[in-house]
Amino acid sequence: MTLKLHHLNASRSQRIVWLLEELGVEHEIIHHSRHPETRLAPPELLDIHPMGKSPLLDHDGVIIAETGAITEYLLAKFDPEHKLHPRTDSADYPRYLEWLHSAEGSVFLPGLFGFYLMNSDLLETPLAAAMMAERTKAANHVEAHLSKHAYFAGDSFTAADCLMGFQLMSTNAQGLLDDKPASKAWLEKVQARPAFQRMLAVGV
Ligand SMILES: N[C@@H](CCC(=O)N[C@@H](CS)C(=O)NCC(=O)O)C(=O)O
Prior knowledge:
Elements: E1 3-8, H1 14-23, E2 28-32, E3 56-59, E4 62-65, H2 67-78, H3 93-102, H4 109-119, H5 126-148, H6 159-173, H7 181-191, H8 194-202
Helix pairs in contact: 1-2, 1-6, 1-8, 3-6, 4-5, 5-7, 6-7
The structure holds glutathione.
Glutathione (GSH) binds at residues 8, 11-12, 40-41, 53-55, 66-67, 104.
């Protein structure tokens, strides 16, 4: 069995590096570097998948793109004891699924749009203001949830925490968690995990 992750530096592919470390499954990381000016992925990723983006998982020659799909695939194959994902009959399952997909959906998209608007020098526009309002709404939603629950799916750490981690780390790096004590406390807690530290050692 061979399991390879095509990982792009400074990207949300680090969520899968972290998940692989949490799973403890043997794997290889293939590093790719962003173009220093455009910040785009190198063209060699286009030889692997038509979208040319990272993460890309290669399991025995089968290529899988999209973080949520890669996560569900890895858990189905390598987490038979459900240590990192609740069983479908668990009360935590609906919340788990919702956060797993929020990490690339409604909670994440306003920040991504904001990044594109900033790069295009369009921050002083009604669209940028609308995106900022959406981003604030999402950050408040995360904070309210983490004020009541230890982890995204409930009382236990799951893959949803790995996926939401990038969102909270980047929000924190921009100083936007300064008035969000529950989000900050969650971040400190998960950053102390050995698998998170191993992810950092891989080079994010
Ligand atoms: N929806 C995809 C997004 C993948 C994606 O956009 N990856 C970014 C890294 S954060 C990328 O490869 N960007 C470089 C490029 O588009 O050239 C997922 O969930 O994996």
